[in-house]
Amino acid sequence: MELALFSYRRGSSPLHKAPAFLKMIFLFALNFFVFWESPRTAALRCALAFLASAALFFLSGANWKGLLKLRFVFYIGLMVFALKIIGSPAASWAESAAYALLYTARFFVSALAAQCVFETTTMLQMQEALRLPLVVTLAINFIPQIFSEWQKIKLAARSRTSARRRKSLFGAASIALFEMQALLFVMLEKAETKRKALENRRQAAAPVPDQNFLERTKNKVIHGGKIKKSEALKIYNWPNLDELKSAAFQITQKRAAKKISACALINAKQGKCSEDCKYCAQSAHWNSSCQTKEMIEVSAALKIASQAVENGAERICVITSGRDLNGKDFEKALQIIRAIKEKFGGRLKVCASLGLLDTKRLLAVKEAGASRAANNLETSEKYFPKICSTHTYRQKRRVVKSIKKCGLELCSGCIIGMGESVRDRIDAAFAFRKIGADSIPVNVLSPVKGTPFESLPPLADEDFYRTIAMLRFVNPKSQIRLAAGRKNFSDNGKEALLSGAKAFVTGGLLTLSGTEENSDLKMIEELEARFSCK
Q1: Pick from 235, 257, 248: nearest CA to 349
Q2: Do residues 80 and 66 make contact, with C-beta atoms less than 8 angstroms apart?
């Protein structure tokens, strides 16, 4: 017991954590007041326990694992010491050594039983491979052993005088505790050994990564094949990011449109939105700093369109806030579309993002001169309820289907960095493929103060590039367009345009500042040369 008290440093009780001198005071009081030892004997026993513990820890490198390595050297000697000095001083050293050998044999039997339990657990490949063997071994070895030692204590109590009974009781209890402590040390070592063995076995059994998977999948997509969700997950998690970006870039060269597409925005109506999208500053549900602006005049819209043409944009999108546009505001939106088409003709294509429009209004937009309509799915169907509750993913999907039925090109994209998982991004990518999205704008969340998502951490650059590359593998012919959040990257999104994207939104955005058109023109000139090299 004394040795356990001094040597078992990993214990969690306050007694085990106490300094050595406090332990010695406790042991002295225990021997003097409980076991009725003389002060001289109690002090001697405390000193011997302390010296034995100190010697063990000095020779074992002052840690319990080192102590395990020395257990075979010290076990018999300490057992003899416990039997002779503490247990039965009247017995000879030969008798003490015989009993020590007997207890050592029992100890090895217990250790063998523990090993058998661990081996069985390893063969069964159990998840609780470390906890269950400890519990089972304790039950198999400790409980019968405790009963056995208790029987010895009872026999000693009946057959000895009161003076010798104390020593006999203390000796039997000390031997039992000492033996069980030694068994526990072995079990801990076995647990550590088996844990490492299981880890090594699992690593060896893990499938070796297919080094040719990326190249093979890239060639399949280039030649018109489609990938599965399981393949998309492997692509997203490809270890070498540079290889992934290069493969996506090669698919873009072969399958996407030849020119880099730049699209400008007309923020035709802002604020007072009835929807509760948690990322949006325009929602009336949140207390953001977004200012309300009524429907823009036709002349102001034409001025923005003229600037877009000068800055190299080939497309402009008329965007309004709210669930859907109707009444006089809808009629004014049609006037803006007509005016742009009349002034710029084929130089500037028009897109309309006017909310959850029905088929009748979508046809009116097409007749006014728009070639494309936009409605973002935002994220996966599974994650969508966590970002909005005032309309459903199904309603959005119904609108995008109507857009295609009306003969309009479809622009439908996503926002990443809203707390969604990688699988949510992959599900969204496959949803875009299913609905036949011609343009997929990728927005990176810019948390706005006053919205529920204001405290979300920024998206890592690597996650952004991996998402762009994965989208290109899934949607090889679509215009993967960099939208909101592009200016947060030091290179203005240039690296993303070499990782699978081939379109971007230029100029001002909705409630956030955009990029400078002059820098975008220079970037287009630089990248066009890269894309032309096949």
Answers
A1: 257
A2: no
User: How far does Cα 357 stand from its chain's mean position?
Assistant: 38
Q: b vs e for 186-215, b when ≥16 Cβ sit within 10 Å of the residue's Cβ?
A: bbebbbeebeeebeeeeeeeeeeeeeeebe
List the chain domain ranges: 2-205, 214-532
Token readout for 17 is 């954590």
429 contacts 221 by C-beta, under 8 angstroms? no
Q: Rounded to an integer, what distance in angstroms lies between the CA atom of residue 264 and that of residue 340?
A: 13
Which DSSP letter does residue 273 get?
A: B
Task: Quote the DSSP letter at residue 140.
Answer: I
Helix, strand, or coil (residue 265): strand
The DSSP secondary structure of 301-351, one letter per residue, reads HHHHHHHHHHTT-SEEEEEE-SSB--HHHHHHHHHHHHHHHHHHGGGSEEE
Pairwise CA distance, residues 111 & 447, whole Å: 59
pLDDT band at 35 (very low <50, low <70, confident <90, very high): very low
pLDDT of residue 534: 52
pLDDT in tens, 500-521: 999 999 876 655 544 555 677 7
pLDDT tens, position by position, 90-106: 556 666 666 556 555 55
Picking from 434, 415, 399, the residue whose alpha carbon sits closest to that of residue 483 is 415
Look up residue 437 and give its amino acid: A
CA–CA separation, 213 and 223 (whole Å): 15
Q: Which pLDDT score, from 0 to 100, does residue 189 have?
A: 56
**Using alpha carbons only, what angle is made at residue 396 by residues 390 and 398, rounded to the nearest 5 degrees?**
130
pLDDT in tens, 445-479: 999 999 999 999 999 999 999 999 999 999 999 99
How far is it, in rounded angstroms, from Cα 81 to Cα 96? 8
403 close to 355: Cβ distance less than 8 angstroms: no
Domain 214-532: CATH superfamily is Aldolase class I (3.20.20.70)
Assess whether pLDDT exceeds 60 at residue 165. Answer: no
Q: Which contiguous run of DSSP H or E holds residue 53?
A: helix 39-59
Statement: residue 34 has pLDDT above 60: no
Q: Which two three-digit tokens encode residue 199? A: 């880890």
Both structure tokens of 304: 């923005």
Q: Name the E strands within 65-149.
A: none
| Residue 128 confidence class, pLDDT cut points 50, 70, 90 | very low
Q: With 60 as the cut, is the pLDDT of residue 416 above it?
A: yes
209, 240 contact by CB (below 8 A): no
Residue type, 191: A
Report residue 165 as tokens: 């009974």
Q: Which residues pair with 353 in a beta bridge?
A: 319
Inter-residue contact 86 to 174 (CB < 8 Å): yes
Q: Which residue has the tokens 């050293």?
A: 93
Report the chain's mean pLDDT, rounded to a whole number: 75
Q: Identity (one letter) of the amino acid at 529?
A: A
Tokens standing for residue 170: 């203390």
